[in-house]
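It would be a great kindness if you could assist me with a short task in structural biology. The matter concerns a single protein, recorded as an amino acid sequence and a row of backbone structure tokens. Kindly check, if you would, that the fold set down in the tokens agrees with what the sequence suggests. Thank you for your consideration; the sequence and its tokens are set out here:
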Amino acid sequence: MAQLVDIYVLALIVVTPFSFALVAKVLGIRLRDIISWIAPGLLGSGVAYLSVWLARDTVGTYNINSIGQLFIFGLLYSIVYFGMVAMTARAPALETVRFMRSRT
């Protein structure tokens, strides 16, 4: 099963640049603009994942049950992700929040 996941991830990594290039061409948007729009989210996700990966050994030494670890790692991921997005894309994030609030 792990090999299938590896193949799927590799396929996504190979295909994604082509799909983004096609979308950019069809919509008449520069590829650089698309990258600048998604970069804060990708950076936030990467740093948040890295922080959870680094914290796994520390949390594991406290003999916390699985639910407790799930809560701690989820909270850590959320805080780091939203912190990174706030630092790298504050204006677009606030604009999105305002838009979502106007819809309710």
User: Anything to note?
Assistant: Helices lie at 2-27, 31-60, 66-88, 90-103. The chain has one domain: 2-103. Residues 15 and 39 are 18 Å apart (CA to CA).
